[in-house]
Amino acid sequence: MNKNSKIGILGAGVEGAALAQFLLEHGFTDVVIFDEKMNDDELIVGEKKVKVVNGADAFNKAASGEYARAVVFRSPGIHINKLNDLRDAGVKVTSTTQYFFENCPGRIIGVTGTKGKGTTSTLIYMMLKEAGLDAYLGGNIGESPLTFFDKVTRDSWVVLELSSFQLHDLTISPHVAVVLRVTWDHMDYHKDVDEYVEAKTAIVRYQKPEDFCVVNADYDYIERFLPLTSAQKLMVSRFGHVENGAFLSQADAGEIVFCRDGGKCEEIDAVGNVALLGAHNLENILPAVTVAKVVGAPKEAICKVIETFSGLPHRLEFVREVDGVKYYNDSFSTTPETSVSATYAFKGPVILIAGGSEKFLDYTEWGKELQKNPNLKAVFVTGATAERMEKSLKEAKEGQEFPLKIYRLPTIKDALAEARKIAVSGDNIVMSPATASFDQFKNYKERGAKFKEWVGQMEEI
Question: Using one digit for the tens of pLDDT, what is the confidence trace for 8-25?
Answer without folding.
Answer: 999 888 788 889 999 999
